[in-house]
Design a protein that fits this description.
Lactoylglutathione lyase, 2,3-Dihydroxybiphenyl 1,2-Dioxygenase, domain 1, zinc, metal-binding, alpha+beta, 22 strands, lyase
Length: 371
């Protein structure tokens, strides 16, 4: 169920969800996630979004590969359904608000029955709204049903014209909720403004889908020189994936290749451009890729009008890799090129929401391109 509220001129979309329980069919689970996916896609990216409900999965106490969406303060041991929750949040640029605030177990446990305690009720928000979240906790004395506990999110949303404080209460077991909002100061707290400076975030991995996982692993390890960092198969969810990179995930960027059972090809679209691999010898790497059966779409050589040497290679699924002449870099997998519809808007998002810094811009009017 979804409702759309307009509070002081700010549009807030609120979705209440109840995922299928253990024992329900895979088809029913797919219908749930597909329906939720459709609801989320209906919400414009410039509007607030809050998802609350019983998602019937355990995201686990620690991030373990999902630090982009899991704050590291969860409860229990992650299971397959918990992975589905984290994959969904990753796909939609959401975060699990419950997991970003260090709490005692009593303020993390959302469900208790027969001496069994778990965390299955969650509040999800857009990643760029995380800084607005002041607190998220369970109220053990406020039972929503005989077994579920109330999960509350306290957030200060800084709107285009007004600031406001929102306190959201969700009763997940029967998909009902209440929202209380009140006007607040338009000046965010110093702590929120300092958040990007204090955290230790970095790019962890890029997730994309491939048609033949073993074929892709062979290409990435033999042709590109990456290492297979870890591999997992999840038959219950009908997918498997592999993490590859030029070094351990603790210090290096990784690609997460995902194979969905029975799907052998994907439409890459036009938004994704390419990855970039830095190397001390573009000519040699390009030749090695060809020797291993890879495809070079642009032969190694200087860029037009310059001296920097580049080449372009294509992986078995059509994803492009630019090989660039940059020796001595600590991270060979050094760039991701994406196409955007409004560069100024995107720069603002990456700076203010994600805490990045603008390194440089390149204007190529002869090609009608601004980078």
């Amino acid at each position: 169920m979804k409702i759309t509220l307009v509070i002081d001129g700010e549009t807030v979309n609120v979705i209440s969800a109840y995922a299928p329980q253990v024992g329900r069919s895979d088809a029913e689970k797919r219908i749930f996630w597909d329906s939720l996916d459709e609801l989320v896609r209906e919400c414009p990216a410039d509007q607030r979004l809050i998802i609350g409900g019983d998602l019937n999965g355990h995201i686990g106490a620690t991030a373990d590969g999902y630090s982009w969406v899991h704050g590291g303060f969860g409860y229990g041991v992650r299971n397959v359904k918990g992975c589905s929750i984290l994959e969904f949040t990753t796909a939609h640029n959401l975060v699990v608000a419950n997991s970003f605030f260090k709490k005692r177990d009593v303020h993390l446990i959302t469900f208790q029955s027969g001496g069994h305690s778990t965390q299955i009720d969650y509040l999800l928000v857009r990643i760029d709204d995380l800084r607005a979240c002041k607190d998220c906790r369970v109220f053990p004395g406020e039972a929503c049903s005989s077994h579920h506990r109330l999960v509350a999110l306290n957030a200060l949303f800084q709107g285009r014209r007004h600031g406001r404080s929102s306190f959201c209460l969700f009763k997940s077991s029967n998909q009902t909720f209440s929202i209380m909002a009140e006007a607040a100061s338009s000046v965010p707290s110093a702590e929120l403004l300092e958040f990007p400076k204090k955290d230790n975030r970095r790019f962890l991995h890029a997730v994309y889908r491939v048609g033949d996982l073993q074929r892709s692993i062979k290409f990435y390890t033999e042709a590109l020189g990456m290492k297979l960092l870890r591999h997992r198969d999840v038959p219950a969810e009908k997918y498997s994936n592999a993490f590859l990179g030029f070094g351990p995930e603790e210090s290096n960027f990784a690609v997460e290749l995902t194979y969905n059972y029975g799907v052998d090809k994907y439409d890459i679209g036009t938004g994704f451009g390419h990855f970039a691999i830095a190397t001390a010898d573009v000519y040699k790497l390009a030749e090695d890729i060809k020797t291993k059966g890879g495809t070079i779409t642009r032969e190694a050589g200087p860029v037009k009008g310059g001296t920097s040497v580049i080449a372009f290679a294509k992986d078995p699924d059509g994803y492009l890799f630019e090989l660039i002449d940059r020796p001595g870099t600590p991270e060979p997998l050094c760039q991701v090129m994406l196409r955007v519809g409004d560069l100024d808007r995107s720069i603002k998002f990456y700076e203010k929401a994600l805490g990045m810094k603008l390194c440089r811009t390149i204007d190529r009017p002869e090609h009608k391109v601004l980078i």
